[in-house]
Hints:
alpha/beta
Amino acid sequence: MKIIVLGAAAGGGLPQWNCGCDNCNAARAGRIPAMTQSSIAVSADGRHWAVLNASPDIRVQLAAMPALHPTGLRDMPLRSVLVTNGDIDHVAGLLTLRESQPFTLFATPAIHEVLAQNPMLTALRADLVARQPVALDQGIEIAPGLTATLFAVPGKVPLYQEGAVVETGLVGETTVGVELSAKGRRALYIPGCAELPGWLADRIAGADLLMFDGTLWDDDEMIRMGLGQKTGRRMGHMPVVETMAAMRDLPVGRRVFVHMNNSNPLVDPASTQTREAEASGWQVGRDGMEITL
């Protein structure tokens, strides 16, 4: 199984267009690497690919990865797109993929329902893009030799669906993780997760690879920095410091943080927090990172 991190950042990317924080300014100046928004590509054979989450940056992400370039006039190695929730940073890129290109769009029925409510997405022609509902905990082939199993993780509805009361620990079809399997290898991709109950830890245990929500380093990070009024948990994300503590003794072959917010010190390869994460056995996802299992 081959995995490419197309984008390692959370919504807004790095630098975020309207943010003047230290990290964004450093990325603009080239002092730290820029990051595009959350997405990975996966293949079992190196020729046929599935993309997990269609970020708003998907055009430049596909252009930057030769493995995903056209192989003919209108022939693409892209076989499918799977989305893990209805967040804008995970579905807005579908509008870029409207160019009369056949592929299969996989999501839970609940997420498909959210997408169907957006009339702009009818630009994805129904005769070319098959919208395939996927039941939880049932494996489905998303590219030749590559099986994906969706499973519920604690999370919340997308921002544009929030009401007066927001439940951040919903467990169902709204926010899912993906278990990828090919040739006896098992990788888990969980870019959004609000907490780590025992049953989820049990599912993660023994994986060859875990790619996990690294949105904020600590819960009140954005408030403390003057960048927002919400905690990480209010946004449906488990803080990195708590994740590392909770998973300290969990048996996992390789562990990688993905979906980092621009405020997160992990986006700086030289930060104290990055060194701390690496000392705890974690890697920090970067655009273009390639992993072979």
